[in-house]
């Protein structure tokens, strides 16, 4: 007798659980529907796996923060220990799904599939995209071929890696994209095809642990622009930031005045990472800015929001800028 996959579904809210007063209106409340209602809308899920479901939150992902990340990491770690489940699906809002996925990609030490999914149209909307997204997410989580690929994000028939996925549009259902490394694969009505696996280290290969961690170090993102001065950098330091990520112009650049402020912050012990506000490309060391002399860290391919996640984890232990730079290259 074939054993059916056991998949745990963790609900956190988001548009996928949103309720709208009109099937054709754009206004809605995120996270309004219970997880049982999401499952009832897709009875075909029971054909894919034996399911368990629980609600961890009922919020829009713009309100997701350290506390929920730590709760998710603890619960996923608990579920994937031993033989309790074969995979986990997390329903989430899409606004910060890329950050949640990357955080779990770095701290959950398991080869079992961890799949996040969401929606751009609320459950009550005409042509809601959530039900098929959830179906495909469960299919991928139940697929043994998804093991060892780290945390995945499934939406709109696409399988994204946690490191590469970005939200690229405010409204369209195809908002989640992987513009740098490309897709992990596709999934069409539950039939998955895989193109590649993650290139960088993840999950079982990471040194990061949040077991027993009550809060993550404060890391602020400072956005560069024409005419930028150093006041936002100084404000981040004054507000207790242990790390600063620059969303720089071009290849992680910033004005001369702001660069001096960032250099001063680094000299004062604040870990300072240069990323870019551009949607694609990478920020390398020592191109227009002498990172070695200024004690700065280059984000390479990581967006500002993902660089922030990695820097928070790096700062859980005492590490030099050079040691943090090595981790940015590996992860």
How would you sum up this structure, described in words?
- This protein has 331 residues and is an alpha/beta fold.
- Helix content is 28%, strand content 20%.
- It contains 10 helices and 14 strands.
- The chain has helices spanning 35-40, 45-48, 66-80, 97-107, 130-141, 231-238, 256-267, 291-294, 304-314, 321-330, and strands spanning 6-13, 50-59, 87-91, 114-117, 151-155, 158-161, 166-167, 176-177, 185-188, 191-194, 219-223, 243-248, 271-276, 297-298.
- An 8-stranded mixed sheet has the order 2-1-3-4-5-6-9-10.
- The longest helix has 15 residues, at 66-80.
- The radius of gyration is 20 Å and the shape is globular.
- The protein starts with 5 loop residues before the first strand and ends with a helix.
- The model has no long low-confidence stretch (mean pLDDT 95).
How is this structure best summarized?
This protein is of the alpha/beta class and 331 residues long. The protein has ten helices and 14 strands.
Sheet with the most strands, sense and barrel status: 8 strands, mixed
Radius of gyration: 20 Å
Q: Count of DSSP E strands? A: 14
β-strand amount: 15-25%
| Structural class computed from helices and strand pairing | alpha/beta
What is the residue-mean pLDDT, rounded to a whole number? 95
Query: For this structure, what is the CATH class of the largest domain?
Result: Alpha Beta
Q: What is the domain total for the residues?
A: 2
Quickly count the helices: 10
- Please tell me the CATH architecture of the largest domain by its name: 3-Layer(aba) Sandwich
Percentage of residues assigned to helices = 25-40%
Shape: globular
Strand order of the largest sheet: 2-1-3-4-5-6-9-10
CATH level 4 superfamily of the largest domain: L-asparaginase, N-terminal domain
Might you state the CATH topology name of the largest domain?
Answer: Rossmann fold
Question: What is the N-to-C order of secondary-structure elements (H for helix, E for strand)?
Answer: EHHEHEHEHEEEEEEEHEHEHEHH
Give the termini distance in whole angstroms: 41 Å
Low-pLDDT parts are none
């Amino acid at each position: 007798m074939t054993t059916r996959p056991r998949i745990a579904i963790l609900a956190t809210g988001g548009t996928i659980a949103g309720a709208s007063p009109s099937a054709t209106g754009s206004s809605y409340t995120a996270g309004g529907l219970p997880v049982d209602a999401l499952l009832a809308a897709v009875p075909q899920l029971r054909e894919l796996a034996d399911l368990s479901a629980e609600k961890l939150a009922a919020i829009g992902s713009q309100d997701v923060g350290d506390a929920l990340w730590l709760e998710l990491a603890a619960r996923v770690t608990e579920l994937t220990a031993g033989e309790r489940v074969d995979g986990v699906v997390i329903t989430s809002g899409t606004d910060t799904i890329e950050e949640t996925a990357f955080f779990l990609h770095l701290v959950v030490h398991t080869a079992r599939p961890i799949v996040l999914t969401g929606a751009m149209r609320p459950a009550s909307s005409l042509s809601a995209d959530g039900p098929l997204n959830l179906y495909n997410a469960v299919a991928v989580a139940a697929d043994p071929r998804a093991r060892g690929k780290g945390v995945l994000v499934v939406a709109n028939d696409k399988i994204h890696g946690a490191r590469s996925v970005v939200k690229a549009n405010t409204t369209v259902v195809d908002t989640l994209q992987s513009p740098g490394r490309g897709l992990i694969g596709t999934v069409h009505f539950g039939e998955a095809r895989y193109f590649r696996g993650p290139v960088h280290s993840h999950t079982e290969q990471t040194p990061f642990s949040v077991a027993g961690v009550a809060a993550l170090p404060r890391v602020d993102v400072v956005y560069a622009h024409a005419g930028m001065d150093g006041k936002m950098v100084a404000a981040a330091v004054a507000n207790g930031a242990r790390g600063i990520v620059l969303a720089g112009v071009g290849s992680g650049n910033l004005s001369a005045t702001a660069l001096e402020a960032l250099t001063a912050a680094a000299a004062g012990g604040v870990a300072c990472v240069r990323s870019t506000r551009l949607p694609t490309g990478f920020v390398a060391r020592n191109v227009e800015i002498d990172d070695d002399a200024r004690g700065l860290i280059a984000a390479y391919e990581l967006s500002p929001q993902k660089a922030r996640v990695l820097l928070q984890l790096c700062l859980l232990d005492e590490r030099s800028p050079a040691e943090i730079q090595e981790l940015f290259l590996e992860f």
